[in-house]
Write a structure and sequence with these properties.
Layout: H1 8-11, H2 13-26, H3 33-47, H4 50-62, H5 67-72, H6 84-97, H7 108-117, H8 120-142
Helix pairs in contact: 2-8, 3-4, 3-6, 3-8, 6-7, 6-8
Length: 151
């Protein structure tokens, strides 16, 4: 499959600036970067975004993530590899990524569990990072961007 156009963010330089500001804001609220990487990877898997799954897994591994956790991210509920805080962030990522799948897209139990582990700034960062990841995913999937073949 070939990309339909270049990455739109690269074609519109002001978009790169805005995306970089979103990235910086989400990563400055004290949520562990490993948690944000897991959230990014899970949302990207759900959305079928090859470039984001590839880059997300590589970045997480480079930052010390284990293969066991990376291989199990899609089945995080059925494995012992994740903390309760990470599980709450992953549940929030799944709900916020699959908004159309249920009438109460992000149920109170999902939100309340995340709120047990993260303060308001942390929750804001996670929500912003989920939204930013979904932005990346939608751009890449719509324009058929491909994961790089050579790293």
């Amino acid at each position: 499959m070939q990309a339909r156009i270049e990455n739109p963010a690269e074609l519109l330089p002001d978009a790169v600036k805005a995306i970089n500001l979103l990235y910086k804001a989400a990563h400055s609220a004290g949520v562990p970067s490993s948690t944000l990487e897991l959230v990014h990877l899970r949302a990207s898997q759900i959305n079928g975004c090859g470039p984001c799954v590839d880059s997300g897994a590589r970045a997480a591994r480079k930052n010390g993530e284990t293969d066991e956790r990376l291989f199990a991210i899609a089945v995080w509920r059925e494995t012992p590899y994740f903390t309760d805080a990470e599980r709450s962030a992953l549940a929030l990522a799944e709900a916020a990524t699959r908004l159309a799948d249920r009438s109460d897209a992000v149920p109170d139990d999902v939100w309340n569990e995340a709120a047990k582990h993260f303060d308001d700034s942390g929750l804001a960062a996670i929500v912003l990072w989920i939204a930013t990841t979904n932005l990346f995913n939608r751009i890449n999937v719509t324009t058929r961007q491909q994961a790089p073949q050579n790293w």
